[in-house]
Write a structure and sequence with these properties.
The N and C termini lie far apart (98 Å). The protein has helices spanning 16-38, 45-54, 168-179; strands spanning 40-44, 67-72, 81-88, 92-102, 108-111, 122-130, 133-141, 147-157, 181-186, 192-197, 203-204, 209-214, 228-233, 238-246, 249-257, 264-275. It is of the alpha+beta class.
Length: 277
């Protein structure tokens, strides 16, 4: 009868605690590696490009379907993953988990962001650097690891002023690209007004208004079918106008409803705000 020697046991067995420490060390390495690249407020690049062209968030609204924007913060206290806030369809806020574990590419990390149409599909977050321009990439994979879609995002800010608002980045970039600047107009008494709008949603020189807000969410209705700007005073009095850009002039129109109040109709022109160069 042939005898086989017993298998040698490792001199220093790796216990579960040590394995966990090694895993967390690798996770920390990836967190630090991706932190400076991924952190920030990101908005769909296609939306930004389209709204600059149309000068109309309403006309560009379809570019915000799906994951419209993301707020990424990779905190030191996050051991092997971070919770990422995002705006879904620019209508509701949600979260998914970003894992400090490499995905299909060396520039990607795994996520648990679900594909609501096919649970076998999955997403990974990565980055793409072209010269000095860094883009965030959301890769959509099929169950057989085929890329279904690659979605590019542009960083619009390092951090949100209002982190509880999932759509803050979208509102901020709309202010910056469309509205911010100096304008002149004439009020009903013939006085010439010098008006300033800034990226933060603040306005000065325009009657008693101190804040402004541009509507970018056109998912819910009724009466949500044209571009709208809301102006607010210190006393919280709010006035809504329909607006339209004609070259460098921002035209504000009174708001009217159709006969059954399901749609907004552009009414009488109230102000012509001419942008100053």
């Amino acid at each position: 009868m042939r005898l086989f020697p017993a298998k040698a046991k490792p001199a220093h067995p790796i216990n579960d605690s040590l394995k966990k420490t090694m895993m967390l060390t690798e996770s920390e390495k990836f967190r630090q590696e991706f932190k400076s690249i991924l952190e920030g407020i990101w908005v769909k690049s296609a939306y930004i490009a389209d709204v600059i062209k149309t000068k109309s968030p309403y006309q560009s609204r379809k570019e915000l379907l799906g994951v419209a924007s993301m707020d990424i913060v990779l905190s030191k206290g996050d051991r092997d993953s971070s919770r990422i806030g995002f705006s879904l369809n620019n209508h509701e806020g949600s979260e998914f988990t970003l894992y400090f574990s490499l995905g299909r590419k060396s520039t990607c990390l795994k996520t648990n962001l679900p594909d609501y149409d096919d649970k076998a599909n999955f997403y990974e977050i990565g980055y793409d650097i072209q010269e000095s321009d860094t883009s965030l990439m959301l890769y959509h994979y099929s169950k057989d690891n085929r890329v279904i879609e690659s979605i590019k995002y542009t960083k619009v800010a390092n951090a949100a002023v209002n982190p509880d608002d999932a759509a803050w980045g979208i509102e901020y970039i709309i202010n910056k690209k469309l509205i911010s600047g100096s304008y002149t107009t004439t009020d009903s008494t013939g006085n010439r007004l010098k008006i300033k709008f800034n990226n933060k949603g603040e306005v000065s020189g325009f009657l008693d208004f101190r804040k402004y807000y541009i509507n970018t969410d056109f998912i819910a209705g009724p009466a949500n079918n044209v571009d709208q700007i809301y102006l607010e005073t210190d006393s919280k009095f709010q006035k809504m106008y329909n607006y339209k850009f004609i070259e460098d002039t921002l035209n504000l129109y009174e708001t009217k409803h159709n006969s059954d109040s399901t749609l907004l109709v552009i009414g009488k022109l109230k102000y012509k705000l001419v942008r100053q160069k």
